[in-house]
Every structure is written in C-alpha cells, then in structure tokens.
Design brief:
The chain is built from 24 helices and 18 strands. The chain is of the alpha/beta class. The strands form three sheets. Strands 3, 4, 5, 6, 7, 8, 9 and 10 form an eight-stranded mixed sheet that branches. Strands 11, 12, 13, 14, 15, 16, 17 and 18 form an eight-stranded mixed sheet that branches. The radius of gyration is 27 Å and the shape is elongated.
Length: 570
C-alpha cells in the first residue's frame, strides 16, 4: 500500500445503509446524511453541537470530575483502562458534552451524549454532568435540551449507575416545577436506563430520522421471547405511530424545529405591561359575573343547524390552524403507547402571542373521516390533550381548544382502555389548570367527549354549531318510538348556540357568514380570529388564583341554577 493510501481512504466513506461510496466532503456538507438513501450516520457530540447552536455561542460547562472506579470493576480490562482508551479515541472527558448556547438567538443549556465513548453509557460522571447542566438551566431560567445516544447504564459502575436514572430525573422535575421547557432529541441508538429516564420524561421528545429507542435492545428481546420482531421495530417511525414521540425530524430540519419550539415555549406568559388593554370594563365584569349579554343571532331550526354543523365541508381544526393561527407545530402522542388521530394539538401563534391549541379533527372526505375516527377521541386522544394542557400550564401558555366531535369513541377497545376515567381526568385537570383556557365549539359538541376539552374560562360557539348531552338520534332512540323523531329531539335538546347562550352554557356566539362557515371559510376564520383575541386578551390580565377561582365558580353555578334553566326552556 502506498503512503498516500490512508489519505485517499479518508476522502471517501461507505454508507452503512446502501453501501454507496461517498465523497467525504460531500457527506459532511450534507450533515452526514447519505444523499443516496437518506441514512443518518451517527454524530459525535462536538459535531452535533456545531450543527445545532449559533456559531460562537457555545460556552462549555466544566467537565472535570474526580477519577472514579466506584466498585473496582474488572472484566477483560480494568475499568480505568477502558476510560483512558475512550478519552484517547474521542478527545472527550466523558460520554456527554454540556454547555450553554443560543439556537436562533434563543438561550438554552445543552447536554449532548456521544455514543463513541463507551457506548454513551450512563455512569456516575455522566449523571452528575447532566444534573449540573439541568441545575444551570434552572439558575439561568432557560430551557434544557438533551441529545441522547446511549446503550444504557454503565455496567462497570453497578447499582450506582442505576441510581443516575433517578438523579437526572429529579433535576428534570425541578425544571418542570419552575415552568422551564425540557426537550430530548433521540438519536441512534437510545436504549436502557437512558431511554427509561431522561430521554422520555422531558416535556417534548423529538426523534431524529433513523433513530431507534427502547428499554431492551432488539437482540435481547429476540433472545428472551424467541420471536422475530416486526419490520421497523423501535425505529423513529414506529415510535411516532405508537405515540411515544412528538415528531420525527430529519437532521437538516432539526435546528429549525428546535428554534421554533424555543421561540414558542421560551417566551412563557408575557409581562402584564406588555399585554394590550383593548377590552372595556363591562367585558371584564362579565368574566367574573357570568355569560355575555350581547344579543344572540336569530334563532334557526335546531335540526337544520345539526345538519349544517355536520356538513363535510365545514372547516376542521387543521383548517383553522392554517387560517386563524400562525406557525403551528404539531405535537404527537400520549406517552403510553398511542397517538390518537382524532385529536390534534401543538404550539402556535395568535396575533404574535404563543398559545397551545388542541382540537378534534374530523376531515372532509370519507377517507379522512375514517382515518380520524370521525373526530371521536380514544383514551389516548384525551391523554394526549391532557399532556399538552399540563405542558401549557408549566410554560405559561394560554390554551385554546376547538371542539368538533360527535362524542368520545364508544368502541369496546376504548372502554378497555379506560375511556370514562380519561375524560374524567381531563375535566378535573381543566377545572384547576393555572393558565387561561378558551374553548370554541366549532361544529358538533357531543357529550362528555366535547366537555373533555371545553371546561374553560370562556366558551365560544360558532353560530351554526351544536352542543349537547346526547345526539338527537340517540335521544330519539331512547325517548321516542323511533329514530325518525331526531328533528323533534334536536329542538327539545336546546342544542343551538342561541339556546345555549341564553342558558349561560356558552359566553358568546361567533356569527358565521350569511349561509354557513363552509361557504366562506376565509370570512369565518377572520371572525373567529377576532373573537379569540377579544376574549383571550382580558384573560391574560387575570391573576392565576383568580382565574382558577372564577372558572370553578362558572361551572358551580350550573347546579344551583338547574331549576331556573329548566323553567326557562319550557
């Protein structure tokens, strides 16, 4: 071999995915993603940081810790010899690099693991460094971003390594209590104790395309079960389908996605002096004293309204997210094994203010309706909504919900998964959620499935929407001789917006265009946007304790006023 052979070899790299021979400089320009097959090569921590943070902004945190071999572990080599070799080959002190930096101008603390260093294993030093990074984020009042790459706990440190799972988790809990965002970015691979602790107990979990994550590795699972694993098992796409990550992001988009999330969630609740005071005193009085007194639109036949509310062309939550809000970033998964397609949610902007938007999603075509289960949420959908509500509260973001569902999923599977308890938990949580909540009934508001997103400080309703304890057909089947009495039941249920405004169930009716929302979606979006701003801005001025107290009072008064409501609708 000639003397130039090693240099020539460094100029080229073979893709582990498609075996293509790639020019190394071209591969590096493509962020170490194969331009032929899209395979994402593993990155060391220094290169990962260069790709993510603003140039010149990184300030490394101290990483010099006392030498440790806590249990005098020896296998083929003494543990200290393995540490020395890992440091020599990587140039790192340990399997994580921590520092402060900015991403798109937004400050954060980062802890980036490096799989090259003893498989990115979690030992006492790694646990201590990540904990110190979390404490620095807490002191600075900035988000913490973890980039994971690990085979699990470091066996050479025995049970002390196991304890690091709890140590780091406690540090993340402190950030949650302080209302500071925590984000983990899963890269390939993330397994064992890291996967079962700080890789998945952060507020947001992103997976880089090609990442794999699980508690036990595929080989261990095959050995224990003796079964072949399904195609794509534990991959990023598998995790997304099973509701375990918020999103899958290609490497070239990862920095931009983190920038968007930091911009949305790092702002928190705006200073009170920065919130425009555009609403009159009477509006503020109504927030405390009860339903709005503006005249409701003219009454229409209830059954006709039901049919309009169910029209397949009626704008959906995703339509409104595109037309009313800006910069929507969808977040997925209930963290327990599913991602219900009937509920969508994520961070967005409303007139420049960051909010959390959660809503039922139906669709327009038959295929879309079937794929979204006609907007009927499973327990996983309610748990996803609950997760996003709690996240919004921690970050000081107002919650806006868009309700459009015939009701919760009535299937056997939903019952097996605790549908009743899932709805009850949402309702209970919303009654005390320490952030403004604004709900809008945009189409159908069916029973407990609707209420699970509609326990709010202000409840708005589009003019041709409906909101009811039961569907007209269901009511007719129980109380009338046959389902053909559904129109009569609709009228009896008092389910239209004018009815509900008079009853105090809703606070305001949002007028639709002359015909209906589906005939002029753009004008409907304009009116809805104006109504949301008019109702949200006063809520931002209300102290949290007062906000929660008023919300509780709002729903308490329905019990005391039940007889009055009954008498008023005869």
């Amino acid at each position: 071999m000639t003397a130039t052979a090693p240099r020539e070899e460094q100029l080229w790299s073979r893709c582990a995915g498609c075996a293509s021979l790639l020019y190394r400089k071209r591969l590096r320009r493509n962020l170490d993603v194969c331009p032929e097959c899209g395979a994402h090569a593993r990155l060391g921590a220094p290169e990962r940081l260069r790709q993510l943070v603003d140039p010149g902004s990184l300030r490394p945190l101290p990483d010099r810790l006392p030498e440790a071999d806590p249990i005098d572990f020896v296998d083929v080599l003494p543990y200290p010899h393995r540490l020395t070799a890992a440091r020599a080959s990587t140039g790192l002190s340990e399997a994580v690099v921590c520092g402060t930096a900015t991403i798109g101008g937004h400050p954060a603390v980062l802890a980036v693991m490096d799989f090259r260093f003893l498989g990115g294993s979690l030992g006492c030093a790694v646990g201590e460094l990540i904990t110190q990074a979390a404490e620095r984020a807490l002191d600075d009042g900035v988000p913490l971003i973890l980039v994971t790459a690990s085979g699990g706990a470091r066996m050479q440190e025995g049970a002390l390594s196991l304890m690091q799972m709890a140590t780091v988790s406690q540090a993340i809990a402190a950030l949650r209590e302080a209302g500071l965002l925590t984000v983990s970015v899963l890269t390939d691979p993330t397994y064992g104790g890291v996967a079962a602790s700080f890789a998945t107990n952060t507020d947001l979990v992103l997976a880089e395309s090609g990442a794999r994550m699980g508690f036990a590795g595929p080989r261990v699972i095959r050995q224990i079960t003796g079964r072949a694993l399904p195609e794509g098992f534990q991959t990023a796409d598998f995790l997304l389908r099973h509701g375990q990550v918020d999103m899958v992001v290609q490497r070239r988009s990862l920095r931009g996605r983190l920038m968007a999330l930091l911009a949305a969630t790092g702002s928190g609740r705006p200073p009170r002096s920065a919130v425009p005071r555009q609403e009159s005193a009477p509006r503020r009085e109504r927030l405390a004293d009860g339903p709005a007194t503006e005249p409701a639109p003219a009454d229409r036949d209830a059954w006709d309204t039901v049919r309009v509310a169910r029209h397949p062309g009626r704008p959906t939550t995703l339509d409104y997210l595109d037309s009313v809000f800006d910069g929507f970033v969808e977040l997925h998964g209930d963290r327990l094994g599913a991602d219900c397609p009937a509920v969508v949610g994520g961070v967005a902007r409303l007139d420049g203010r960051h909010v959390m938007v959660i809503g039922h999603q139906k669709g327009h075509t038959t295929a879309e309706l079937v794929a979204r289960n006609f907007g009927m949420a499973s327990p996983a959908g309610h748990r996803k909504a609950l997760r996003l509500m709690r996240l919004a509260a921690r970050l000081g973001l107002p919650v806006i919900t868009l309700v459009d569902t015939p009701g919760a999923d009535p299937g056997v599977g939903a019952e097996e998964q605790g549908q009743a308890a899932a709805i009850a938990e949402n309702i209970l949580t919303l009654t005390v959620l320490p952030t403004p909540v604004l709900a809008v009934i945009t189409g159908e508001g069916g029973s407990g499935g609707a209420l699970a997103l509609a326990v709010a400080d202000r409840v708005l309703m589009l003019e041709h929407a409906v909101y009811s304890v039961i569907s007209p057909e269901g009511c007719a089947a129980i109380l009338w001789p046959d389902r053909s009495a559904a129109p009569q039941a609709a009228r009896a249920l008092r389910l239209t917006a004018p009815d509900l405004c008079r009853l105090g169930v809703i606070d305001e009716v949002v007028p639709e265009p002359t015909t209906a929302a589906h005939d002029d979606p753009a004008e409907t979006a304009r009116r809805l946007r104006a109504a949301l701003l008019a109702n949200l801005l006063p809520l931002l001025d209300v102290p949290t304790a007062t906000l929660v107290r008023r919300r509780r009072q709002r729903f308490r008064r329905f019990g005391a006023a039940r007889a009055t409501f009954r008498a008023g609708v005869r």
